[in-house]
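re the bet — no i am not wrong, look at it urself. input seq straight from the record:
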Amino acid sequence: MSDEKTAVILLIGTELTEGKVQDRHGRFLAGELTALGVLVNEMRIIPDSGTVKEIIHGYHGQVDLILITGGLGPTADDITREMVAGALMLDLEYQEEVWEDLLRRYPGGLSESNRVQAYIPKGFTLLPNRFGTAPGFAGGDHPLIVALPGPPSELHGVFQEEAFPLLKRKFFGPVENTLVCTSLVYPEARIEEVLQSIASGKVTWGTRAEPFRIVITLRGGSQKERMDTFRRLEEILGPIFLREGEFDPVKHLVEVLKAKDLTIVTVESCTGGYFGKVLTDIPGASEIFWGGIICYSRQSKMKVLGVSRETLEIAGPVSCETALEMSRGGLALSEADLSLGITGIAGPSGGAKELPVGTVWIAAVSAGGGSVTRKLNLGSTRQGVRKRAVVAGILLIEELIRDERLDNCGY
């Protein structure tokens, strides 16, 4: 038998099989397992029914891992725990600490039906869920069975905090012969295109798309070959947009601002408050985030931020000048040390030959008078433009902090 580990992913939910909800988990989990060096043999979407039990029997001894999502809620059709226990002829064991933790976190907000979520197959390892009410669990031997909650935020959180370390440590062992790096702003298709153009030797790769980054895992070959591939990728994308290791740009910004005791105000047009939203998703952001201002219309830019009518008529609402005046207006209205202004065309309509959809101007200014501006084309989908604008703004703030610059609208 090959040393390569194999897996099957089971996505449970009648809402998936009936087409009411689109699967959002398969690609994420497949990318994570690929990064571990695990070959995903199959991915199946199955309804909330007893078929899980038969499927587990069918894969016994055939794969190393069965990864299950969904069916761990408190309702009558959430039967994953029962099916896994039944397949292995195990009893369900009550975990008092799980129920006590739920009562602490949701005082007065739970019904007795939630108690079922404190049961896991006997002998299995509990995977705590601080993102919701249903913990996951892992156990069994050839295959190892890992069950995770279905809601996206819970699945991602429990997998990254609990399941991934468990798989790496207890089952798959250390992942050798890999180099992990993170690409920012560029879409996944562009990363794939570049990697194909520079591929050489025995180095292969896998990519994992997340909201604000693409995590790239270079595998195989020698350490020098992997580093050479990384360097060639860095030359093409630029060192600003490629970081070695798992780099989270939003957390990084919060950490940098905390370390330097700086605060920021955001002034947003096309991103509609998205920048402020992702900042406040990070615990402790109140230490660095003064607040956010959303000025979408020309009138609000003039009335609230003081952008001049002349600037809007001559330079246009999507311009270096407008982005700078927006950012300076935010600084004047706040007590922050830094201000970030974003204006652009998120689409799908509104573009022109000179300013196509995806055009975004971003300006970062400091209370000391320094400023940096950028004009970028960030793609054609509305959500993609907004997400990449957030990351581009983070990189611009990073640059301003590193080296305050004079105005440069032609940059």
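see?? The first helix runs from residue 14 to 17. told u. also The mean pLDDT is 88. so pay up
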